[in-house]
Amino acid sequence: MKKISKWITALSITFTSVAAVAADIPATSIMDNYVGAGYGSDVYGGESQFDIDQMVVSRTGTTMSVGIYTAFSGNDNYQMGDLFMSADPSNPDANPWNPAPNDRYSDSSSSNTGTDWNYAYTIRDWSGTHDDRYNDRDDTSGRGRLVSGFDQDDLRTSSENHGNRSRADQAVSLNASSYYNRRQYHAYDNIHSGWSNWNTTDNVYSMNGISYNLISFEFDVAGTALATANQIAFRWAMSCANDIIEGLVSINGDGPVDVPEPETLLLLLLGLGGIVARRKIGSQKMQPAVL
After folding, report:
1. Bridge partners of residue 192, in order along the sequence
2. Closest Cα partner for 199 from 134, 135, 125, 136?
3. CA–CA distance, 184 with 19 (Å, rounded to integer)
4. Contact 289, 23 (CB under 8 A)
5. Which of 95, 161, 169, 190 has its CA 20 to 30 A from that of 42?
6. How far lies 93's CA from each of 60, 87, 248, 262, in Å?
7. What's the chain's Rg over C-alpha atoms?
8. Distance between CA atoms of 34 and 267, rounded to whole angstroms?
9. Mean pLDDT calculated for residue range 156-177
10. Residues contacting residue 46 through CB under 8 Å, at least 6 positions apart
11. How many Å apart are CA 48 and CA 72, to the nearest integer?
């Protein structure tokens, strides 16, 4: 019986450790249908400059990868926005996304939706000092990091207006960091990862006469709700908010899981335990009787 107990103990430990591992998120697309109906319906200004087609999200282990397919590319007039994310830290299965239905025409603070955007991958932006030498927002590549601990007052919002169809007051990034007497100030309280590189790949594909670029972000989410959540909301826009993409990625239900199912492990445990027990009984029967 000691051997049986060892098998069950070992398998129980394996079962517990594997079951605690968060599932990977396979590459999942968020299409640009949050405001308007995608191409040509929600873009202010030229579609060939601002249209966003889709966002593709994946999580492998604790590495989050986000790709944004857009005609936009950073320049001096319109800059890269930050990637906002939301996940419930108390319930990994909770839906954190609360979109505003009239976001397209709104110019009030509610235009940033009712979602609690509690994480942001913020692009390195220390433009308050040093003659903008640390500002990566007007480039097609640079550095960024995962942060949290900001609120509405810490947001930088768009100031573009287009007649009655305003995109003013849309959340696009966090306020710039700055230095004062060699002390650094941020629009956030928590830093969750070191600096990582982001980049833009030009002309990935064409559609409706528009050439789309790929803006790629990759960063570590270890120790945050983003590492374990089964539902995560995402939002991104360029500094003018001439187009916005926002949506929810969910791996509940039929989403694939890269770790063994608990039921499978339990059956394996019971099966191996039964095999060991049968061998034990069989060996006892074969032993000669003691006179």
Report:
1. none
2. 136
3. 41
4. no
5. 95
6. 18, 9, 12, 17
7. 25
8. 44
9. 71
10. none
11. 8
Q: Cα dist. 288→277, 284, 291 in Å?
A: 20, 9, 9
Question: pLDDT of 191-245, one tens digit each?
Answer: 999 999 999 999 999 998 999 999 999 999 999 999 999 999 999 999 888 888 9
The model's pLDDT over 34-90, given as tens digits with 9 standing for 90+, comes to 665 444 457 878 889 999 999 999 999 999 999 999 999 877 788 899 999 999 999
d(CA 115, CA 156): 16
* Structure-block tokens of residue 120: 């942001």
Q: What number of other Cβ atoms are within 10 A of residue 48's Cβ?
A: 13
> What are the residues facing 143 on neighbouring strands?
197
At residue 36, φ and ψ (nearest 5 deg) are 75, -160
Residue 241 identity? A
- Which tokens go with 244? 């916005």
Instruction: Tell me the two tokens of residue 228.
Output: 């374990």
Question: If you search the block for the tokens 């202010």, which residue do you land on?
Answer: 44
Q: Specify the residue for token string 């308007």.
A: 36
Under DSSP, the state recorded for 209 is T
CA 112 to CA 197: how far, in whole Å? Answer: 27
Structure tokens at 200: 């833009």
pLDDT band at 170 (very low <50, low <70, confident <90, very high): confident
Instruction: Report domain extents, the chain.
Output: 2-12+261-286, 26-250
